[in-house]
Amino acid sequence: MSAPPREPQSQLRAAELEELLAYLNASWDEERRALSRQMHDSLGSSLTALTMHLGLLASKLPQEPALHDRVAQMKKLLHTIIDTNRAMQHRMWNDKLEFLGIRAALTERLSEFGAAQQLDTSCSLPEDEPSCPRGHAVVLLYALEEGLRNVVRHAQARAIEVIVDDNDEALMLTLKDDGVGPPATTMECYGKHGLRAARERAAWLGGTLTLAPNPSGGAVLTIILPK
Fold first, then answer.
1. Contact of 165 with 223, CB cutoff 8 Å
2. Beta bridge partners of 213
3. CB within 8 A of 48, min separation 6: which ones?
4. Are 190 and 211 in contact (CB under 8 A)?
5. Closest listed residue to residue 122, CA positions, set 166, 175, 182
6. 214/218 Cα distance (integer angstroms)
7. Residue 73 neighbours by CB under 8 Å, 6+ apart
8. How many other CB atoms are found less than 10 A from the CB of residue 154?
9. CB of 152 within 8 A of CB of 193?
């Protein structure tokens, strides 16, 4: 009985690279999560303590306008650093995803994006928190963020809509915009690494990510993750 034919080397290589990419993505996610927690627990706590100490010292200072003006400047600077620290934490890892769930994380991210870009936004979510592994939620949020970045860079949109559908078989997120639309029906025409990385993340979980023209104008980004 003859041995089965060997798998072509190119297919083996592709499988190895796909596994390596999945490992690097997971490692990067965990590293960002750990760094965000360290910034919250260490730097954030220290800055808050400094603010309290400064307030105590200010209450003991003589009533000299110059001194209290300097204290006010220091307080303003500290609050700016605290806000910057929080923003950096959030960029590295969305803790809402971990503590409040995917519904809260998606809603907040879309609201922040709309306010920053002065776009009309709407979001339709399931009534109940979707039941899915944390890895699925991370990929879903990552895909949304890449889709929003794509809207800023290319769409020239005035409004965006996000729809999340959850059933027993799959979790699906759809991002629609009313912009100029993609130049063709396939995402490869954009050639953007962010969307390609999101697509590979979805593929590793057995899902798909597509970008296509919206029949009513603009583009539709769809990610489907099987459960």
1. no
2. 219
3. 82
4. yes
5. 175
6. 5
7. none
8. 17
9. no
Q: Tens digit of pLDDT per residue, the chain (227 long)?
A: 555 555 677 777 777 777 777 777 777 777 887 887 878 788 888 888 888 888 888 888 888 888 888 888 999 999 998 888 888 877 777 777 777 888 998 998 999 899 989 999 999 999 889 888 888 988 999 999 999 988 988 888 999 999 999 998 999 999 999 988 776 545 554 446 788 889 989 998 999 999 988 888 899 999 999 98
CA distance 162 to 218: 14
Using a 10 angstrom Cβ sphere, with 0-12 exposed, 13-18 middle and 19 or more buried, the burial of residue 180 is middle
Residue type present at position 91: R
According to DSSP, residue 160 is labeled E
Name the pTM for this structure.
0.69
* Coil, strand or helix at 64: coil
Quick one: which H or E segment has residue 158? none
CB atoms within 10 A of CB 35: 14
> Do 169 and 190 meet the contact criterion of CB atoms below 8 Å apart?
no
Per DSSP, helices labelled H in the chain are: 9-38, 45-60, 65-92, 95-99, 102-117, 134-150, 193-204
**Spatial contact of 106 and 164, defined as CB atoms under 8 Å apart:** yes
Sign of CA dihedral 179, 181, 187, 193: negative
Question: Dihedral of the CA atoms 155, 159, 164, 170 (nearest 10)?
Answer: -20
CA-based angle 56:60:63, to the nearest 5?
Answer: 125
